[in-house]
Amino acid sequence: MNSAAPVMPLPPVAQLPEWLQAELRSNHAGELGAVFIYRGILTVSRDHQLRNFAAEHLHQEEEHMATFDAWLKPSQRSLLLPVWRIAGFMLGALPALIGPAAVFTTIDAVERFVILHYRSQISQLDASGQWGGVTALLRSFCSDEERHQADALRRYPMRRRTTIALIWSSAVSVSSRISVALARRF
Ligand SMILES: [Fe+2]
Ligand SMILES: [Fe+2]
C-alpha cells in the first residue's frame, strides 16, 4: 500500500451488498494471482534488473493480498484459489523464460486491466455514496497498480513493441477478464 494510504475501518464483508462482495472476491483472487505472477518471475529469472523489478512489485502485491486475506473469511473467497495460484505463477514464469520484454509486456497488460477493474469499482462506490473506507482502500491499491503499470511501460515502451507483444498483450487482457468474471461467481 502506498504511504498516503488512508486508514479507515473496513466494514465486515457480510454487511456489504452482494455485488460488492463479489467484487471483493475477485479482488482477493486477483491480488493472489498477482503475488504468484511475481513469484513466478523470481523463480525463473536470473536477470538482476528484472528480479529487482519483480521483488519491488511483489512486496506491494503481498500487502494488497494480506489486506484481503485479513478481511475476507475463507467462505467469502473464491473457490478457485488453487487455479489463480497456478495461473498467476505460469503468467509470470513463462514470459520470464523468454526474457524481460515478455515480462514487461505481461505486467503492463495485467496492471492495465487491474487499474480499469479497480476504477470501475471506485466509480460504483462513489455513486453509491457509501462505504468510504472501502473506496479509500481501493483507491490506494489502484494507485499502486498505476505505478506498477507505468514502471513496466517505461521499461518496454509501446513504440518498441513487436506484433507478437501486442497479440500477447491482448491475450492477457482477455484471460484477465475471464478470470475476474469467474472469480466474481466462484
Ligand atoms: Fe495489487
Ligand atoms: Fe500490481
UniProtKB/TrEMBL annotation:
InterPro entries per record: Ferritin-like_SF, Ubq_synth_Coq7
Origin: domain of life: Bacteria
Keywords: Iron, Membrane, Metal-binding, Monooxygenase, Oxidoreductase, Ubiquinone biosynthesis
SUPFAM superfamilies for this protein: Ferritin-like
Keyword Repeat among UniProt keywords: no
Biochemical pathway: Cofactor biosynthesis; ubiquinone biosynthesis
Protein name: Demethoxyubiquinone hydroxylase family protein
